Every structure is written in structure tokens, then in C-alpha cells.
């Protein structure tokens, strides 16, 4: 019985020992409090850190949009023929600048001779019809003719005039002078002229090939009148209107910025996207070497609004997010501190503790940037308006050491 009692006492002592050791260990290593970045007065002065408040500023309000450059329909053309034929000569190259009315190519067509013959014949018939009408009119005025014959002569004259006018129009459409055809100076080549001034695009014909009617021979585009079609979504629809200033960023030209103005806004949605197209003319488009199809990002100036803002210098980026630093507290020499900490703080004995708050940024104007706080801060909180990057660097260095 005595042996059993001694054994139970030993087991009890062994079971209690680890618990007591654990409690003692916890007392020796107190829990570390999570703090922000602490800077001494000397550090604050050396770096030039400044404190301020979150302000209400009247900043420029913008609508973000994207789109691509387009050319108006009147500034691009497909060169086609009304009459087909064999390509005799091509006078231009792709990428060459041409002016309106410049000869681009010639097309050989034997039917053109027949058309000119018909016109010459119609001119002769018209001349006869004019003389017959004048003769019958004289007889009718002198009551010596038959009224029915005069009416027939008048009808024939109108018919011949219409025939000549139609054939003349056909000749002009294919680039042939009716006056030359009337004098028997026939041509067998159809000249092809540039309908607009611009730059030659893709040429699909070559010497000796057959050019079919109504099929494009080449294209011409005038990029000096390029404009931008911007996609504006439903939530911003009623903010955008004609006359507003637009700031473009060319994504494929090192984010070069150009300016323009909204000149029109569509009044119907594009397909099922719940977005409309706003058309913007670009200032000095001819000097900016712009090409149809370029993608752009744009900011549309829709006026000014009062918003919460901080100096742009107050913002720092870390881990893909944006932050501002605010003052949590100021420690002074009256508080009990370790000697090493006191030495670090310098002669003044003050240290400033900062923490960061995540924000979502908006528009920037006049050195200020609009912000929205992710988590609420005290009303009169003091924020770092200058030198925030130094605090971020100090925090990063402390994190690396830990």
C-alpha cells in the first residue's frame, strides 16, 4: 500500500512539471505588440517629413474611356471602275501620297470605243433634230405647217437631248471627255483618277491583269482627319457631352499625350455592351503621325467637383496597392524606455509612430490626388504629406530584419 502511494505522488509531480515550465517560459517571453514605423525627431528633421491633414479640394472631374482611332468615311476611298478592262499602266506605289484628280492607272477597254461612237452618233442626231424642230416651228408660227408634225419634231428633240446627256455622263464617269469624242478623237484607255487626296493603301492590280467592274483596284486613306471613337459606359453616359476637352494617351507610342474635343455622342447602345460611342476630334492630328486603328486611353474632362484629396507626394505604392501614412502617437522622454531606445531617439527624446492606411485613388490635379479610404480614420488625423516614401523604405527594411 505504501508503494502505491509513493508511485502516485511521483506521477502527479511529473505531470505538473511541464505546465509549470510552460508558464515560466511564457512569463520570460512576453507577447510582442504590433506597431507601426517609429522615427526619431532627428530622422524627421533630416528627411524633411511634413505632416498635414486630409483636405477637401475642388479637383478636375474626368471620365476614363478607351477606344481607337478612326477616319471619317469621306476621308477614305476604294478606287473602282464602272467598266472592266485589262490594266495597261499603274503609276503609283503603296504608301505614296496622292492628290485628288491625280492619274493612278489606265485600263484598256474596247467597249469604250463603241460608247464614244454612240455619243458621236447621238450628237449628229441631235443636230438634225434641232434643225427639224426649228423648221417646223417656223411653219407652225406662219400657219403653214401641220401641228402634229411640229409636235413630233419637238418630242424627237427632247429625246435626242436626253440621249446625248446620258451618253455624255457615261463618258465622264469613265474619265473620257465628251468633247473629244464628239470630234472623233477616240481613246481606248480608261484613265483612273484619285477620288480624294491621301495615302495609297493596298494595290490589288498589276500590269496585264483584268480589272473587274465594281471591284477595288486600290485604297486611299487621308489620316489628317483622323478622329477617335471612345467607348463610354452607361454609368458615365450623362456626364459626357459635345465640347468637352479630352486628353489622349497613345499606348503604342510611349504613352505620348495629345488633346482633342468631343464633337458628338451616339444616342444608341453598341450591341449588348451597354456602352455608347463618343466621337472626339484630335487637335493637330496631321502633325502627330496618327494612323487609323491605333488604340488609345482617354480622360474626358467633365468639369470640377469637391472631393477628398491629399498631396500626390503623400501616396506610396506597395504590393500593388496604394497607401498614406498617418501619425498614431508621439512618445516623449517622460515615458519609461530602454536606454538603447533613448539613444536612438536622440537628444529630444521624442519618437513618432506612423501606420499606413490603404486608399483607392482617383483623379489628379494641381498636385493633389483624390482618395477614398478603405478603412475609416479619425476625423482630425495627421497624415504624412511629404517624405512618405522614406517611411515606406524604413518599414520595408524593418520587415526584412525581422
Automatic annotation (TrEMBL):
InterPro entries registered for this protein in UniProt: MdtA-like_BSH, MFP_Cation_Efflux, RND_pump_MFP
Span of domain Multidrug resistance protein MdtA-like barrel-sandwich hybrid: 75-220
GO molecular function: transmembrane transporter activity
Pfam families the UniProt entry points to: BSH_RND (PF25917)
Region feature (Disordered): 16-36
Family from the record: Belongs to the membrane fusion protein (MFP) (TC 8.A.1) family.
Protein name (record): Efflux RND transporter periplasmic adaptor subunit
Species annotation: Mucilaginibacter myungsuensis
Phylogenetic classification of the source organism: Bacteria, Pseudomonadati, Bacteroidota, Sphingobacteriia, Sphingobacteriales
